Amino acid sequence: MAGVPIGKDIYWVGAVDWNLRDFHGYRTGRGSSYNAYLILDEKKCLVDTVKSPFTGRLLENISALVKPGEIDYIISNHLELDHSGAILEILRHCPKARLLATGHWIEGAEKYFGPGLPVQPVKTGDTLSLGRRTLQFIEAPMLHWPDSLFTYLPEDGILLPNDAFGQHYAAGSRFDDEVPEAVLMEEAARYYANIIMPYSNLVAKMLGRIGEMKLDIRLIGPSHGLIWRRPEKILAAYRDWSSGRTREKAVVAYDTMWGSTALLAESIAEGLQSAGLETVVMPLKASNRSDVAAEVLEAAAVALGTPVLNNLPLPSVADLYTYLKGLRPRKKQWLAFGSYGWNREIIPRFAQEMKEAGFEMELPAVAARFRPDGGELAAARAAGVRLAGLAAGAVETEPKEKPE
Ligand code: FEO
């Protein structure tokens, strides 16, 4: 794929990665892309690079439009190596280019690439004139790393925010209105849940700042996936997700050794469903941690179940728990459950650990020894009903109206 115009004299020159299936633990079932953008003005400017194996593709796309040696500036919005991995090779082909990035980027880059890069720090409020247009910079710490930067092109109404608003979605098309909307929004939500969710407070602040700055955003070019020609769609979704708003939905995620925790999971799910919550049951033998995170994003209730192995939760459940702990999902009611054989302390201890880690949990853990009997299954079902009741209080179906 050659460069694709996204505005007047502005081109996507990145690379599509059809084969990517794991992005630091996030299962990327539809691959991804590493989006870089070339602005051809009186001064020539490249915004972001690509993951290093795709350097040749980036150079090919640039060279079809301009000699790389004519590039005056390279802006690196984010240090993570899926965007800056090609930087040394690109600089070799662009000997006169000055690199612009944040101070945090420079700090990390010295460790990745060594000292001596021709880099100039930028911060919020700084601008760069390319001739007919002037770029504006907005620091965006933690979206996705402390070094992250948004580059805004006011004359074109284009925001290049790197990781924010992205999706891990490889496609032959480059724009949001060229792919099925349901698939696009599913991938955008998966991406938010697995990459952005821990920083929801900062997302909300950034959306507020963008509003205060009255940026005229007509196109958003993220660093992964499709480019938003209808930016209001993803801006509205980010407002919703960053608010932590939930809906009447529950997730029951578990693993099982001999089927007992599975029986508890089914009974809890029955209780949740009977109380009116849309319930997704996710056995971990069939679901990756990132699949669970995506389902958890809008869920009001989550039950996490494990058997006991060697006096600990099963490693697959510990893996999911660690992953979710890092993602810091908010405004949900949690329930721990599981079966045990010889140590009745482990499931309650797991529940306590979850509470101490910040998971909101008002119900006691549901536990059954060896195989749950009829009474224990009934208790699990009742816990599902109670969990649904607790979760319902947290669901905001509509924005609250101001009193007259
Ligand atoms: Fe796409 Fe934080 O890197």
Automatic annotation (TrEMBL):
Pfam families: Flavodoxin_1, ODP. SMART domains: Lactamase_B. GO terms for molecular function: electron transfer activity; FMN binding; metal ion binding; oxidoreductase activity. Keywords: Oxidoreductase. Residues 250-388 form the Flavodoxin-like domain. Its EC number is 1.-.-.-. In the N-terminal section; belongs to the zinc metallo-hydrolase group 3 family. This is Nitric oxide reductase. The lineage of its organism: Bacteria, Bacteria division TA06.
